[in-house]
Amino acid sequence: MKSESEQIRSLAIEYAEGVDRRRFDAVAELFLESGTLEPPGALRSGRRDIAAALEGLRRYSGTFHHLGQHRVDLDGEEATGKVYCQAHHFAEIDGQRQDRVLFIRYQDAYVRHRDVWRFAS
User: Could you read off the pLDDT of 7-19 as tens digits, one per residue?
Assistant: First the structure.
């Protein structure tokens, strides 16, 4: 059986794999129904809005998210965490493949809902 911290860390892995596989509805299910996602310059609320925001990644021919360290601080039914990530976003520009590399630090809030951990934000 996974520890609480391992269960929460699994969310980050599922998020990264889901994004890279273009399974945006499945990624949105990792959030509470009222969860939020805050990409640069926007705030998305609710699973439907989160999935729609992630659809914007289809403009890239592919993505690759490599996760680094992940800190989790538990407080009962809630937790916070920081996940470091190097993300590659591939695009075809003027016939050449470009790799836009992002260095990301996710600052997450988690809630245990019906015995399953979900992203709150």
Answer: 999 999 999 999 9
| pTM of the entire predicted model | 0.92
Q: CA dihedral defined by 8, 9, 10, 15, rounded to 10 degrees?
A: 100
Bridge partners, residue 111, by sequence? 78, 118
pLDDT single digits (tens) 31-66: 999 999 998 888 999 999 999 999 999 999 999 999
Q: Alpha helices, DSSP H only, in the chain?
A: 4-20, 24-28, 47-55
CA pseudo-torsion sign 39, 55, 108, 47: positive
Q: Yes or no: say if 111 and 82 are a contact pair by the CB < 8 Å rule.
A: no
- 30 burial class (0-12, 13-18, 19+ CB within 10 angstroms)? buried
Phi/psi for 28 (5° steps) reads: -60, -30
